[in-house]
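Example protein was shown:

_____
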Amino acid sequence: MSNDLIMRSFLFESQDFANWKRLSLIHEKYNNLTTSELEKHMLSAIHFNFYGHLGSILHRTDRILMANSIEGRVPFLTKEIIDFSMNLPLNLKINRGIRKDGKYLLKKLAERYLPEKVIYRPKAGFPVPMQEYVQPIERIFENGYVMEFTGMSLRMLKEFYSANPYLKFRMLALEVYGRIFIRHEDYRNIHIE
């Protein structure tokens, strides 16, 4: 597979067409390596994500934490660890043959200190008990923005989101957004009880 085709497939998958030139320049830097085409492509993608995607995630996380007076820590982002990990061979970064997951070397090291069930458990986000958060909130929709926007009655809205607490939460968020930013209501007068 040609370099160009590999990069096109990566950009298509990541939908990051605006950075085509940047990824091309990174990939050219890896052309002098005596590694396989796959390894050059993977190293380029890792480098590209490290300076692109990771930066935006860290920036957003930092702003969210600061807005809530929380001090965040990123222990794996010290200069020494970054230098070490960026210079590891690809087979120590990603090893699909063993347990089909990433962070191979880190997990092998963790086996010395943690139980296997902790190290190799499936990824899980931070699940929110949505049903508990959005208990009976129908009254907020009475003559509200969502009824106006959708043209649905209160009964129709309740039927629409009754089986899905995440949809109910999204409808609630739309209601609050619409009242504050579309109807220009004072947020202090919006109640969910």
In short: The mean pLDDT is 77. The longest strand covers residues 94-95. The CA atoms of residues 167 and 173 lie 10 Å apart.
